[in-house]
Design brief:
By secondary structure, the protein is mainly alpha-helical. The protein is built from one helix and no strands.
Length: 74
């Protein structure tokens, strides 16, 4: 393999500084994965809440129309 073709990312890391940098990078990546997971969870919860509002509003409207629930404006 020629010198230009060496894959630098596969070389063994030996210096303590490089090891510390890699550990810090992995920690940041781990934190970002956790943040992305929470973002997906909140997005899913928000979508479910928005989807559930529509049927609940329809049911409440029918109940108000049939007199089961009191009207909004007396």
């Amino acid at each position: 393999m020629k010198r230009q073709e060496i894959d630098r990312s596969r070389l063994k890391v030996t210096s303590r500084h490089q090891i510390a940098q890699l550990r810090a990078q992995r920690e940041r990546e781990r934190e970002l994965r956790q943040v992305r997971k929470l973002v997906r969870l909140y997005r899913r919860a928000r979508v479910v809440a928005l989807v559930m509002i529509i049927p609940v509003a329809v049911v409440v409207g029918f109940l108000r129309a049939y007199g089961v629930l009191p009207p909004l404006v007396p």
